[in-house]
Design a protein that fits this description.
The protein is mainly β and 343 residues long. It contains four helices and 23 strands. Strand 14 (201-212) and strand 15 form a beta hairpin. The chain has a five-stranded antiparallel beta sheet with strand order 5-6-7-13-10. It has a four-stranded antiparallel beta sheet with strand order 1-15-14-9, with no helix packed on it. A four-stranded mixed beta sheet has the order 16-23-22-19, with no helix packed on it. The protein folds into three domains: 9-93, no CATH class; 107-246, Thiol:disulfide interchange protein DsbD, N-terminal domain (Immunoglobulin-like, Sandwich), CATH 2.60.40; 249-339, Sandwich (Immunoglobulin-like), CATH 2.60.40.10. Helices cover 13% and strands 43% of the residues. The protein has helices spanning 38-51, 73-77, 79-93, 236-244; strands at residues 2-5, 14-19, 22-28, 63-66, 107-108, 112-118, 123-130, 135-142, 149-151, 158-163, 169-172, 178-183, 185-194, 201-212, 216-227, 248-249, 258-263, 266-271, 280-284, 290-295, 303-311, 320-327, 333-339. Helix 1 packs across helix 3. The radius of gyration is 25 Å and the shape is globular.
């Protein structure tokens, strides 16, 4: 198992600096310490401590300051030793980055971290954790952004691997545009088939995704994980929960949906009434086409949406099929709708 990223954290020096009649001790920590979850920050620190060979490495990383306060000259003289003891204690308390046979190492970037996890046999996943305020994107990113890309070239004993996408949320941007994606964290389930089912799959993934806050940054994680052939993974419940957030395919009309043309380049879709979270509808059209979906006036408790054709190819003509993803209610569903001219 392993991980490799393009944005490597740099190490810095451990030193003491005079500050008037105080003495301020500081230690430079890896860049990965400042992003992601508390667990990830601790893991980044552990990996940094284990790799250190020199008491005073050099570099230009951000520095994390520990103020030890005023004290006697003897106490100030002992500050480097206190820091060393604290660092050793943290190192001893850190779990081994490679001790987990069911997950790869985390691949850290400035605003996110990603790893591979194993689930039940034939199941894996890519777990992404985002810094507060950051987002990443669905397969249709909305008005801007980039969808994630999964490249399994380099895997061994792999017949096929297909990533699925949990249902997105609609995220309003400061410029008035909308993004379709995820906040905080997301797990993309992966369906895995082995060439030889008696042997484990060695999964290699190049995962490209975008992370946006005020600025959008491309990120790449190169991840490796050997999937146990038969063992049940401790991450199986997490992947099962992610799978539950992935839309299931239905026939919208047979399931009680109503879809009609309402005008020139406009349509209306209504889903049957049901309990649960507020509904939303996301549209994916063929290349060169763009169809916008907005919530419309509700009717008899049903969730209704207005669809409007915004763009089509120069040689494009109706009818055309689109993929729709309905979220909220009793769970996400996806289905095909055919855009036809109004009769």
């Amino acid at each position: 198992m392993g991980a490799n990223i393009d944005h490597r954290a740099r190490e810095g020096a451990v030193a003491q600096a005079g500050h008037g009649d105080q003495e301020l001790a500081f230690i430079a920590l890896p860049g990965g310490f400042f992003g992601g979850s508390a667990h990830a920050r601790m893991l980044a620190l552990c990996q940094w401590l284990r790799k250190r060979k020199s008491p005073a490495p050099t570099g230009r990383s951000r520095r994390f300051f520990w103020r030890l306060g005023r004290g006697s000259a003897k106490m100030r003289a002992m500050q480097p030793y206190i820091l060393a003891i604290a660092a050793c204690a943290v190192a001893l308390a850190c779990p081994d980055a490679r001790a987990d046979d069911y997950a790869s190492d985390w691949a850290h970037t400035l605003k996110a971290e990603a790893r591979l996890v194993a689930g039940a046999p034939g199941e894996a996943g890519v777990e992404v954790r985002l810094a507060p305020g950051a987002i990443t994107y669905w397969r249709n990113p909305g008005d801007a952004g980039a969808p994630p890309r999964f490249d399994f070239a380099g895997s061994h004993n792999l017949a096929s691997a297909e990533a699925d996408y949990p249902a997105p949320t609609r995220i309003a941007e400061s410029d008035g545009s909308e993004a379709f994606g995820y906040r905080d964290s997301v797990v993309f389930p992966i369906r895995v088939a082995a060439t030889d089912t008696s042997k484990p799959v060695e999964l290699a993934l190049r995962f490209d995704y975008a992370v946006c806050e005020k600025l959008c940054l491309p990120a790449r994680a190169t991840l490796k994980l050997t999937l146990p052939a038969n063992d049940e993974s401790p991450y199986a419940p997490e992947l099962l929960a992610a799978r539950a957030l992935t839309p299931r395919a239905i026939d919208a009309v047979k399931s009680g949906g109503e879809f009609t043309a309402s005008g020139e380049g406009t349509w209306r879709f209504c889903a049957p009434a049901e309990p649960g979270p507020e509904r939303d509808l996301f549209i994916e059209a063929p290349s060169g086409w763009w169809v916008e979906s907005k919530a419309a006036t509700q009717s008899d408790g049903r969730a209704c949406f207005a669809l409007q054709l915004q763009q089509k190819p120069a040689d494009g003509a109706l009818p055309v099929d689109i993929r729709a993803t309905l979220t909220g209610g009793l769970g996400p569903r996806e289905f095909t709708l055919t855009l036809a001219p109004k009769a």
